[in-house]
Input
Amino acid sequence: MEMDLQKTKEARRNTPGKQEENSECPLEAYGGSGHAKDSPKNDSLDHRDASSNSDSANMHQRRQPGKFSYHEGVALTLSPSMQAAARALVPSPQAMSIPTALGLSANQHRLLLAAKRYPPVTKSTLSELDLPCIMSNINLRMDANFDRDLHFKPDLDGEKGRRKRKEAADYWEAMAVEIAIYAFGAAHENPADNSPNGPPQTFEPRLPAMFETLQDVLKTLVPERDHPGVVQNLEVTLLMQQIQKGVLDMVGVARWLAALLKTHCAPMRDEWADRMVEQIRSGSETQNSLEIVGGLQTLFSILEAMKLDVANHQIRAFRVLLIEDTVPFLQEYFRGKIERDNFRVETSRLWYLDLRDRELRRMPKPAHVDGFWPISLLFGGISDFLLQFHNPEGFPETFVFDSDRLWQLRSCLQNLISLDICWFIFESYINAQKRYLSAPVQTYATFRTRIGSLMEENEECPRGSPLWLKNVRCIALEIARFACAACFQDGSVSDDVIAPIETALEWHLSNESYLFQYFQSSLREKLLGATFATAKKYLNMSPLAICESQRNQPQASMGQQHYDVERISMRLAHMGVLHWKVWAPILYVRESVTLTDVAMSARATDVARSSTF
Output
């Protein structure tokens, strides 16, 4: 199969016209928590539609009716599906025929017709790495408070990442087939020798759009003085004419690109640039379109890396400003959304008022509360979500930008409770055998490390699921091995040891048993005590001072549960204090009302409610 882009046969079709770049831009494409900037992720108590503004705009565009004129002059409005079918039947002027003589496979045909039209890296997808977007990115501002090493990276994790990788692979594979078609056309007199049994099969070419995208992205990465050279060397019409005639010196273009990139990118990227040139040179010499496409992939990876380097440098440069401005920025942001009725917080306010009312009913009359009491209610309410046996439906809507961190804390706390249950079962077996631990501290440290790593595998598994049960049995086996070692029993672990441990473990981990409740209550007391102590210090500190205070925390043994609780409580106190500084004057406590007035108004509310009924 001919792959050479430099054959000298006359091209048989017109130069494809300029295509407009896809306006769709994936939100949070480079790390972050995956929430849209203008429309927070909805896993909260207030279940509402959280479609992003861009998605809404795209849906609006898809809903616009298309009009096809008949001879009688009557316009017919078609449904979106009928429009798509009509577009498929009427190729655009830029459409290319698929030559049957090339012998493409069914999968190659499918990719030509169905793969994305634009490369995975475009000016649009990189736009969220621009400085204005960085400064207005709510998730980034929140994350900067909790992650000193915050940086952008391609978001290729999870199902969304898998889909993006698949789309990118399909695009580049389709591009390789398209290059082969251009080379075939340049080498043959009649490349469009389609089957006489039906109309010619056509597809929309990707190469012109790729060159346009390359030009646009380069302009965002190099100084303005280099823009004329970019336009001159990447003139799309000229490049496409050269490709169709088989005279494009792609290796020369690659070398020019490498020289330009090396001038402006970090030295660590030079190796990539050299690799890109070598891939395109080798592919051109061997007429291997896949190798040429490998070079193009490397090229766009370099462009993405350069943009990421710039963005991450800007994060480091503006980190102090991002953190110090957290509270006023978020207050302005949320007030605006509440005023526009784009963010409903009624359930969050009712949640907090319910916490306050319940606590006031438990307190002696007259109640005396200090200045810390209102925020202590917040910590108590959040700890309920974190420690309860069943997963909550979500957190209060006001925690929308902290929800990922809260889920992580919940996972850590649930693992601590489960670890306590495992240790209790282990000690119960040892005591039943009338043995004792000669070095309980060291044994617990090893036990915690081994069992803790097995528990992490169960974090994503629903309780009672087959995979969860399988992991629980693995944990039971490990506990049994520890028990046998503690009892100086050599050899394999017998079923007599495993069976009772497995039964007890499965029961206590799958039910809200008395053992779970006991360790839950114990952990709640430790957690709130440590959180309150830390939060009282944080309340008088700026957001930046809170971050800096955590830089040189003493490193304790990972085997100490107390250390875990301290770390979790520090994280919870940090989240809670920032949250309180933002939301207390907006929602929980009016700026003009004192804390004593809050307590008095609660009683008045109770009296009013009772008189109503």
Notes: The first strand starts at residue 66 and ends at 69. The CA atoms of residues 233 and 253 lie 7 Å apart. The chain has a mean pLDDT of 81.
